[in-house]
Amino acid sequence: MTDWSITMTNCYICGHALDQENQTKEHIFPNAIGGHLMSKELICQKCNSDFGDNIDTSLAEQFNIISSLLNIKRDRGTPQPFKAIDSQNDTGYIVKPGGEILLQKPDIKQDGNHYTIKVNDEKQAHQVLNGLKRKHPEIDVDAILQDCHLEKEYMDNPLTIHFTLGGEDTFRSLCKTAINFYLYKGGNRKNIIHLIPYIQGEKNVLDIISPFYLNSPPIPTKDEEILHSIIIRGDSVEKMLIAYIELFDFYKVIILLSDTYEDENIEYSYFYDVLSRKVVHREYELNILKDDVKYSLAHNTPYAEIYKRMQPYLNTVIKKSLNLQIKEHIGDLLDKAIENFRRKTEGTNLTESDKHKLLVDETMNQLTPWILHTFGEQNGNHFDH
Asked: Which of 97, 102, 110, 322 lies at a CB distance of 3.0 to 4.6 Å from 71, suitable for a disulfide?
């Protein structure tokens, strides 16, 4: 059995004793991106708060789009909605966690005194009509609202989404993740103490962390999973203590925690499926030498080349997120069909045959628009990073 706990009496950042007053839960991977593993024996409440307000927030914001597309579950709150643009007509949209799409602002088209208005809900319609009433006092807002009808439609045009990854704060947060896990597994603080000023933002340390994409992916993936992964390796012969981290299976970095490592050889790993929220087992092959790490850290690879290596993995994650949204959407449509069926049959004396026909009709009424759109148009979303 693996021992996942350690005893630690002091915050490894500031050195203050950890007690009931300043003890806090520190997530190994930030909870904002779905991390679950935590410890109360790493850092104090103040240090936790300081990191949460800067570097961890920066990392969470950069990965918010992925977290939102996957509708990542976390201890508190949900991922934030994000903005997207219709690539054909520049209409702005808000994409909510799980994929629901809303207009960023009301769509109002005017032809003389005739207005065509598209809004997200009745409340927004009321606000728009009250605004038009100031220009056209003759408008009867209540009468117009009574004649309005709710209509959902599928989008025909691709959406473009812009986001960037990387940067010093994100690297600092990932370095902290590596340190947290190393110490959580019983590592010696002396091997990482030189990195504390770096993750605190007090100094820049060169050649510590870099995007890292091997020709052969070290960690195998499964269709139904999306993982946060970390591997810690200590090699006393090469005097190397490294961390290899993958976020959402696509963002991959190497971190040189120490190049003077002399303790016993170690290898720790942790793989967490952010969809099922379960720890999973993986057989992996991380075959890298100290020279490989040093070379990667010393060469400032252009972002275009990093993105080229990252893109296949990112596309896979996006495809998985869209498949999840389709399954959830079909489930919602079927729930709506059943709800309508129950409402229409409640208190009636319909025969089993009539009930069967009504259920089929309600089901097809809900599913047909999606089927025609999906298999008739074969449109997909486009993501521009």
From this structure: 97
